[in-house]
Amino acid sequence: MSDYTKLEKCLGYQFKDKNLIIEALTHKSFKKPYNNERLEFLGDAVLNLIVGEYLFKKFPKSNEGELSKIRASLVNETGFTKLANEIKLGEYIFISTAEERNKGRSKASILSDAFEAIMGAVYLESGLETLKPIILKLLEESYDKINLDVLFSDYKTALQEITQAQFGSIPEYKIEGSYGPDHKKEFEVSIWIDGQTYGTAKGKSKKLAQQAVAKIAIKKLKGSK
Fold first, then answer.
1. How many domains is the chain partitioned into structurally?
2. Does the annotation count 116 as an active-site position?
3. Listed GO molecular functions (predicted)?
4. Residues 6+ apart with CB under 8 A from 191
5. Catalytic site residue 125?
6. Which of 8, 43, 122, 151 is the most exposed place for a label (fewest CB within 10 A)?
7. Among the three residues 112, 144, 176, which one is the final residue of a domain in this structure?
């Protein structure tokens, strides 16, 4: 049996049932009678709840729309991959030889799913109150600040990494126009990658519009793979 001591130390949690951690780390490509998809499903639901409660308490003056945006910036593939890398989860995942050759250990989809599964496994074994401090500690260690602008900036950073890898270039943002009175102005920004446009988005500032259109471009690029 593999040694999960380092991983458990990073989590600050020791599994009583080692079969549970094995299941959580087993990708469907590994061809076992079990995989981590059910635990991933559970983990996703629990993470939404814990992060939602955390933001509710952290930002007492934020409205539902703002809280939803911040949570969406954290509870997604990019966010979970960031947390998975914080605990070096890629080193422990069971994947097929083909996935190994395709650099599966560093794939965002595989890392994100395994992270959700591990969190689902902790919840299943020890409940919400044990899992909550593990998640919150990882969040605070992974993000210098948690607020709307800082988290949105991850979309631009993530997109730049994708475009540099795929096209060898960085995205170009163009302001297409601004609308409304000065106190309630809205900006429209388009995004161009390698000579092609990947969408437009609006925001209350140029910065927010850029983040919104970067998110659209990420979805399009991932969908075209």
1. 2
2. yes
3. ribonuclease III activity
4. 171, 172, 173, 174, 197, 198, 199, 200, 210, 213, 214, 216, 217
5. no
6. 8
7. 144
Find the CATH number of the domain harbouring 35.
1.10.1520.10
Ligand-binding annotation for 113, yes or no, is yes
Same domain, 49 and 135: yes
Q: Which of 23, 99, 116, 154 is catalytic?
A: 116
The residue from 91, 120, 144 where one domain ends is 144
Q: Which helix (H) or strand (E) holds 46?
A: helix 37-58
Catalytic member of 23, 44, 99, 154: 44
174 lies in the same domain as 202: yes
Q: Give tens-digit pLDDT for 138-191.
A: 988 887 777 666 565 668 888 888 898 889 889 999 999 998 887 778 899 999
- Domain check: are 104 and 212 in the same one? no
Residue 66 labelled as part of a binding site: no
Q: Answer yes or no: do 118 and 169 share one domain.
A: no
pTM > 0.85 = no
The residue segments making up the domain with residue 157 are: 149-223
What is the residue-level pLDDT of the chain in tens, covering all 225 positions? 467 889 999 999 999 999 999 999 999 999 899 999 999 999 999 999 999 999 999 989 888 888 888 888 888 888 899 899 999 999 999 999 999 998 889 888 899 999 999 999 999 999 999 999 999 999 888 877 776 665 656 688 888 888 988 898 899 999 999 988 877 788 999 999 999 999 999 988 888 889 889 989 998 988 765
Please, which residues bridge with residue 203 across strands?
A: 187
Alpha carbon distance 88, 84 (integer Å): 6
